[in-house]
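Quick note —
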Amino acid sequence: MSMVLVIMYDGESLCSDDALMNWFKERRCQVNENEIELKDKIIKWNNMRKVNSLIFTIDIENDDEFPPILFEFIGSLKNKDTIISLAEESPSGYQLIFEANLKRFREEIMAEE
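Predicted structure written out below.
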């Protein structure tokens, strides 16, 4: 099963390819143009610049924990108009779990972490 984290940004400088790659490298992750390698997990990423959307895809097996580093990344975002979406793979495609602006996402999802 996989989960998707989508960040719909506008004017969010951390969402540029270079800034994103540098942010993860500073946290000792191996990063290339479409993958972020953690100790035990690979996060696939794609920046769809034409629609200002950054997409992270994570394979989650056996109730693995969602990579905390992605929540750290969200915590570094600044634009209150940024929208964060979480979805999970299902037999019929992806099912939306939660979607909110940056402030609400931090209050309702990240407060639980």
